[in-house]
Amino acid sequence: MQRFAVVMAGGGGTRFWPLSRSSSPKQFLNLSGNDILINETIDRISKVIPKKNIFIVTNINQKEMIEKVLDEEIDRKNIIYEPIGRNTAACILYAALKIKKIHENGIMCVFPSDHYIKDNDGFAEVINTCIEIAEKHDKLITIGINPTFPSTGYGYIKFDRDSSDKYEKKAYEVLEFVEKPSFDRAKAYIKSGNYLWNSGMFVWKIDTIIQNFNRFLPRIYNRFYSIYEYLWTDQEFEKIGEIYPSLQDISIDYGIMERADEVVVVPGDFGWNDVGSWDSLGAIFPPDDDGNIVKALHVGIDTRDCIIYGNNRLIATINVSDVIIAETEDAVLVCSKNRAQDVKKIVEILKERKLDKFI
Known about the structure:
It is an enzyme of class 2 (transferase). With 359 residues, the protein is α/β, with parallel strands linked by helices. It has two domains: 2-273, Spore Coat Polysaccharide Biosynthesis Protein SpsA, Chain A; 278-358, no CATH class. It is built from ten helices and 17 strands. The longest helix has 17 residues, at 87-103. The relative contact order is 0.14.
């Protein structure tokens, strides 16, 4: 079967404010020093799926930016623009129907655009395994990451260890998806050996995921099929704009994966991190002798276990620890590391106060 990739690139990356903005969200940032995250994602995928079969789903507000910076080998006709954000379920069905109309069926792999992975060869091996299982079994496949510490920032997948014989010992049947746990519960999950981190990456046959939309999210399914004939025509975006405001704002996890009974997980161990907030930069940059992660012009005295990210100005610190300092041309963030997840609340306040130039 033909292989296709769908890269979800419509997020705002608000937990990386002030570096990530609505006009240039996290997936367009060069955090590693090599390339922007979305292009690193495309390069990684292309080891398994040809670039001509890679589709990007993003928001129409990011059209100018994505066409400017996206890998030149990605066909601009493969960029799918949503008029407004409606979470991951809507964008996945939109992409699946676009591919189906031209190619009928195939294997569809879904990836976030803004994750960091160290071992690209190991990643390719896992994706190939998922595709192999999807071709042989009519299943919804997700990738679970072998946990390395009791994270409270990730969702977890509980799996049936005794089910691996059905899948050549390469996959397990999923028993339960678990939301972000408390620290004690996360420790118990890891100790049990029956849980993986939820990576948000999926593999399935196109027809299989469409059938599951019809079963579990029929309102979204019916709305899309009402304009199916207009896909790949000059009227597509107009018709999409008519149905999108009425679509359920729901994730693929809540809408389908947690409700379906034909879900399997393939474990992965390839240096994955979703780089979801400032405190996850340690996955990309090693700390110095004082535990600081510094990407700035910085002078410090008694400064330990901090994250310091700057633009052009000198950042000087004295007697501080466990703090995030992020500086751009027009804004400065100072935040306790244990509150890194709350940075997105700053963006919400800026919206309420109509300080749009900082969003």
